[in-house]
Design brief:
This protein is about 0% helix and about 45% strand. By secondary structure, it is mainly β. The strands form two sheets. Strands 2, 4, 5, 6, 9, 10 and 11 form a seven-stranded mixed beta sheet that branches. A four-stranded antiparallel beta sheet has the order 1-3-8-7, with no helix packed on it. The model has no long low-confidence stretch (mean pLDDT about 95).
Length: about 130
C-alpha cells in the first residue's frame, strides 16, 4: 500500500507544542522532498513547510515561520513537524505528501509547474484551544 500515515495530532492549549509524524508506507522516502499541508473548515489548503531529501533545505510559510520546524529521518522513512507556540489559528487537519518531481525544496508556496505532490495521507487533527 503506497501512502503516508500522519500521527501525533491532538488537543493542546495555546502556547503548547505538538510533534507530528509522517511515515511513508510502500515506497522509499529518501528520493523526495516532502511537504506539510493543513486545511481548516471553510479555508483553502495551505502549504506550511517543505524539507528536502538529503541536503537539509527547508521552507516555511510566513504563518508558521519561527514556530514550526520540519525534519526527516530517512532510515525510519519518516518526516516530522515540530510545532511550538501553537495558536488557535493553527487548528486544522495536517497532511503530508511527497513531491514526486523534486528531491529539494524550491519555493513555498509551490505551483503545479514547480511541484507534483502525491501519496497524500489521510491527515491528523490538531486542535489548539483553552
Amino acid at each position: 500500500q503506497v501512502q503516508f500515515v500522519e500521527s501525533g495530532g491532538g488537543l493542546v492549549q495555546p502556547g503548547g507544542s505538538l510533534r507530528l509524524s509522517c511515515a511513508a508506507s510502500g515506497f522509499s522516502l529518501d528520493d523526495y522532498a516532502v511537504g506539510w499541508f493543513r486545511q481548516a473548515p471553510g479555508k483553502e489548503r495551505e502549504e506550511v513547510s517543505c524539507v528536502g531529501h538529503s541536503d537539509g533545505s527547508t521552507l516555511y510559510a510566513d504563518s508558521v515561520k519561527g514556530r514550526f520546524t520540519v525534519s526527516r529521518d530517512n532510515a525510519k522513512n519518516t518526516v516530522y513537524l515540530q510545532m511550538n507556540s501553537l495558536k488557535p489559528e493553527d487548528t486544522a487537519i495536517y497532511f503530508c505528501a511527497a513531491d514526486l518531481m523534486n528531491s529539494r525544496c524550491k519555493v513555498l508556496p509551490s505551483t503545479p509547474g514547480q511541484t507534483a505532490y502525491g501519496y497524500w495521507g489521510r491527515g491528523t487533527q490538531v486542535t489548539v484551544s483553552s
